[in-house]
Write a structure and sequence with these properties.
- It contains ten helices and 17 strands.
- By secondary structure, it is an alpha/beta fold.
- Helix 3 crosses helix 4 and helix 3 crosses helix 8.
- The radius of gyration is 20 Å and the shape is globular.
Length: 368
């Protein structure tokens, strides 16, 4: 057992506060990670506030985790003590279903689906008779903490070309936007539209540019038009009817990164025949889609859920190779509740990243 300190929400209406707990020693196939940085994802806010009606409390968020291997299990061989590594949204899956065997762990069809880095299985209603989560863990506490224990094959290698604090959001925002681009075959010369210009949209634009696409960013904020130009993209206001008319039927791929319910219908006419708009930001219900717009040119409206382990390692290496990464602001963990408010108010485009040294200092002061 290792004593750990994290920041947890104890109710849907409560602020995150310090929580002391213990991490199990690594099992033979597991590694213990001393956490250095953890990104702040909008999903953390949804989860902490139980906006998806599945939160297990106390909830220690955090699934954009970067740290160094502190110890390894007796049978672990993929990583060694001192390695710089990352953990994304998943820390296990059933390993037996068709999706898992195909390397698509994020679409695990096992009894509980994949095990999230915090909050337990993706099917939280299927719990043990005592009410605790499955996979042999009473609760799954995430990366807003001093350490974490993870099966070694769900741990990613951070390439030398990436700073650890920059790598953290790539483990979610990076792979969440890269995976659908890869699946739907975005390539050099394609015309790609990114809807929404927050943390996901920023990464999506940079990745699409690095793939050689012509990138357009759709935003509601005039201030973000200049930010789009700095990325080498064309900014388009979502209420610019003339621009929507001009670009009708011209896009090879559209990616919606808006994190809440929104209307896709204005964007569907922008697609070429047989092309796809993919939603990655919102996991709740969307406004109804006008199927005449879809059927008329055999277009598709699709969804994509994070990315598999191979895609996650691939995008980490891709970002290092192309020298791209999210715009970040590092914060001490003591500012996490203020950061949540800023994200919810839409006042930030960059990704907050927690410096876990601030938590370790709090832990040391508490123990003194």
């Amino acid at each position: 057992m290792t004593k750990a300190l994290g920041y947890a929400a104890k109710h849907s209406f409560s602020k995150l506060k310090p929580l002391e707990f213990e991490r199990d020693a690594p099992k033979p196939n597991e590694v213990e990670i001393d956490i250095l940085f953890c990104g702040v994802c909008h999903s953390d806010i949804h989860q902490a506030k139980n906006e998806w009606s599945n939160t297990v409390y106390p909830c220690v968020p955090g699934h954009e985790v970067v740290g160094r291997i502190a110890s390894v299990g007796s049978a672990a061989t993929k990583h060694k003590v001192g390695d710089l590594v990352g953990v994304g949204c998943m820390i296990d899956s059933c390993r037996e279903c068709e999706a898992c065997k195909a390397g698509e762990e994020n679409y695990c069809a096992g009894p509980n689906s994949w095990l999230a880095t915090y909050n337990g299985p993706m099917q939280p209603a299927k719990v043990s008779p005592t009410g605790t989560n499955t996979y042999g863990r009473d609760n799954t506490y995430g990366g807003y903490s001093t350490s974490i224990v993870v099966p070694e094959d769900f741990v990613l290698k951070i390439p030398a070309g990436l700073k650890p604090e920059v790598a953290a959001p790539i483990l979610c925002a990076g792979v969440t936007t890269y995976s659908p681009m890869k699946h739907w075959g975005v390539k050099a010369g394609d015309k790609v539209g990114i809807i929404g210009f927050g943390g996901l949209g920023d990464m999506a634009a940079k990745i699409a540019k690095a793939l050689g696409a012509e990138v357009f960013l759709f935003t509601r904020s005039e201030e973000k038009l200049e930010e789009a130009r700095k990325l080498g993209a064309t900014g388009v206001m979502e209420d610019d009817k003339d621009a929507f008319t001009e670009h009708k039927g011209s896009f090879d791929f559209l990616l919606s990164t808006i994190p809440e319910k929104h209307d896709l219908n204005p964007f569907i006419p922008l697609l070429k025949r047989d092309k796809t708009i993919v939603v990655v930001g919102a996991l709740d219900n969307l406004a109804p889609v006008n199927n005449m717009q879809v059927a008329g040119q055999r277009k598709s409206v699709a969804g994509s859920l994070i990315g598999n382990l191979a895609d996650t390692q691939e995008i980490l290496d891709f970002c290092a190779e192309h020298n791209i990464g999210p715009d970040i602001q590092i914060i001490p963990i003591q500012q996490i509740n203020d950061a949540y408010d800023m994200v919810e108010d839409g006042e930030v485009r960059f990704r907050y990243v927690i410096d876990i040294a601030s938590l370790k200092q709090e832990q040391a002061e508490s123990a003194a």
